[in-house]
Specification:
Layout lengths: L10 H9 L7 H11 L4 E5 L5 H15 L11 E4 L3 H14 L7 E4 L6 H9 L3 E4 L1 H9 L10 E5 L1 H6 L3 H9 L6 E6 L4 H10 L5 E5 L9 E7 L5 H11 L4 E5 L3 H13 L4 E4 L5 H12 L5 E4 L12 E6 L6 H8 L9 E7 L4 H11 L4 E2 L14 H29 L1
Parallel strand pairs: 1-6, 1-7, 2-4, 2-5, 3-4, 5-6, 8-13, 8-14, 9-11, 9-12, 10-11, 12-13
Helix pairs in contact: 2-3, 3-4, 6-8
C-alpha cells in the first residue's frame, strides 16, 4: 500500500505530514508527488476535494528544502497563483503546516487588505509567495517584488482563474519569471482553454495525470434533488436542518443579499449561522471562515466565492438553496463536502424555473440526482422521477444518433 513514506519526501517534510495527522496519500497525491518532486512539469486534473493542494505543496517544500539556497537575502523561489483570497490563504496554511520543520519562509499576497504588511514581508525576504494575480501585479508594478529567481511556478485551480478573466494577468506575471523553471498546473476541470494555456507555458514533455472523471463530483458525495416552490425555500431549509443528521452545513445562495437574508432568518431561529460573500471585508470573511472551521458557527451561507476556498473536512451537508445555473459551479459547490475521503450529502432545491438547470447538471455529469421528498412537507413542484429522467436522456441520445445518421446519408447522396 502506498504511504507518504514511499513517495520519496524528506524526513522533515514527512514530520510535518504526520503531525497533521496524515499517513496515506490520496490518489492525486500518490500520482503527482513523485513526478513533481523530480522537477518535471506536471498537469494534474482531479475533482474538488481530492487533496490537490498537498499534491503540489509537499513536492514544492521538498525541492526547495533540499536545494541550495542562494546566499544573502531570501529571494522568491516559488510562486503559487490562486484565484481567490480564501484559496490563497488555504494554500499558505498548508505550506506552514507541512513545512513547519524546514527553514522556509512564505507569505500571502491578495487584495481587500492594506499593502503595508505584504510589503514588509516581501522586504524581509521570503522563499514562497502565494498570491492572487491582481494584487501580485500591483506589487510588481510598484517594484515591491522580484520574480527573477523563481524556480517553481504553481497554478492552482487554473480553470477558475481563466473563468475569472485572469489570463492576461497570468501571462504578464509569467513573462517576468525565468523560462527555465518547473511549472505545475492543477485544475478540477480541463476545458480546452486550460489545455491551450498549459501548452503555451509548459515544457513539451510535461506529464499529465487525471484522477477520476472530469465531469463528476467525488463519489463520496450523495446527491439529492428536492422540488420546492420559490416562496417555500426557507421553510424547506429549516425542515432539512431540523430533520437531517446535519453537523456543519454549507448553504449556497445565488446572490449576496439573499445570503444575508437567509443568515438572519437562521439566526432568529436559533441556529449559529454566518455569511460569506464579496461584500464582506477580508477581516469579516476570515472571521467567518475561522468561526466555521472551529465550530463556532454550524452553518455558513455563501455565494460561489466560497466554492473553491473552503477546506473544512467536517462539512456534512452542502445545500444548494438556489440551483446553480452552471454545471461547473454545481460540481465545485458540492465538492466542499465528502472531502478527505469522508462521506457527505448534497441537497439541491429545485423550483419550476430551475428545472432546466437540473437537467443541465445531469447532462453534464452524466448521472441523475436522487429525487428526495419529505412526507410532512408539501409542495406543488414535482420533479420527474429518476426513471423518467433516464428514459428522456435515452430518447435524446437516440434522436441525436438518428440525426447524425440522416446527415451522413444526405452527405453521401450529395457526393
Amino acid at each position: 500500500m502506498t504511504t507518504f513514506k514511499t513517495l520519496g519526501l524528506s524526513e522533515n517534510i514527512l514530520r510535518g505530514v504526520f503531525a497533521a495527522g496524515y499517513d496515506t496519500p490520496t490518489p492525486i497525491q500518490a500520482a503527482a508527488i513523485p513526478i513533481a518532486s523530480s522537477g518535471q512539469d506536471l498537469i494534474g486534473c482531479a475533482q474538488t476535494g481530492t487533496g490537490k493542494t498537498a499534491g503540489f505543496v509537499l513536492p514544492l517544500l521538498h525541492r526547495l528544502s533540499m536545494g541550495r539556497r542562494p546566499r544573502g537575502r531570501r529571494e522568491v523561489r516559488a510562486l503559487v497563483l490562486a484565484p481567490t483570497r480564501e484559496l490563497a490563504i488555504q494554500v499558505e496554511d498548508a505550506v506552514r503546516t507541512y513545512g513547519k520543520h524546514v527553514s522556509l519562509y512564505s507569505t500571502t499576497i491578495y487584495g481587500g487588505v492594506g499593502m503595508g504588511p505584504q510589503i514588509k514581508a516581501l522586504r524581509r525576504g521570503v522563499d514562497i509567495v502565494v498570491a492572487t494575480p491582481g494584487r501580485l501585479l500591483d506589487h510588481m508594478d510598484r517594484g515591491n517584488v522580484d520574480l527573477s529567481q523563481v524556480e517553481i511556478l504553481v497554478l492552482d485551480e487554473a480553470d477558475r482563474m481563466l473563468d475569472m478573466g485572469f489570463i492576461r494577468d497570468m501571462r504578464k506575471i509569467i513573462a517576468e519569471i525565468p523560462r527555465r523553471r518547473q511549472t505545475l498546473l492543477f485544475s478540477a476541470t480541463m476545458p480546452q482553454e486550460v489545455q491551450t494555456f498549459a501548452r503555451d507555458i509548459m515544457a513539451r514533455d510535461a506529464e499529465f495525470i487525471e484522477i477520476g472523471e472530469r465531469r463528476n463530483p467525488a463519489k463520496t458525495v450523495v446527491q439529492h434533488a428536492c422540488g420546492v416552490d420559490h416562496h417555500q425555500k426557507m421553510d424547506l431549509l429549516l425542515h432539512v436542518l431540523e430533520n437531517e443528521p446535519v453537523e456543519n452545513v454549507l448553504v449556497f445562495s445565488r446572490t449576496k443579499h439573499r445570503a444575508d437574508r437567509i443568515t438572519k432568518r437562521l439566526s432568529k431561529k436559533g441556529f449559529a449561522a454566518t455569511a460569506l460573500h464579496s461584500n464582506k471585508s477580508q477581516n469579516q470573511r476570515q472571521r467567518a471562515l475561522e468561526g466555521f472551521k472551529r465550530g463556532r458557527f454550524q452553518i455558513m451561507v455563501a455565494t460561489d466565492i466560497a466554492a473553491r476556498g473552503i477546506d473544512v473536512d467536517t462539512i456534512s451537508h452542502v445545500i444548494n438553496y438556489d440551483t446553480p445555473s452552471e454545471a461547473e459551479s454545481y460540481i465545485h459547490r458540492i465538492g466542499r463536502t465528502g472531502r478527505a475521503q469522508t462521506s457527505g450529502d448534497a441537497i439541491t432545491f429545485v423550483t419550476h424555473d430551475e428545472k432546466k438547470y437540473l437537467r443541465n447538471i445531469e447532462r453534464h455529469t452524466g448521472q441523475l440526482l436522487q429525487r428526495k421528498t419529505y412526507d410532512d412537507f408539501e409542495t406543488s413542484v414535482v420533479l420527474e422521477t429518476e426513471e423518467e429522467a433516464s428514459n428522456r436522456n435515452t430518447r435524446r441520445k437516440k434522436n441525436r444518433g438518428r440525426g447524425q445518421h440522416s446527415r451522413r446519408r444526405s452527405s453521401s447522396r450529395r457526393n
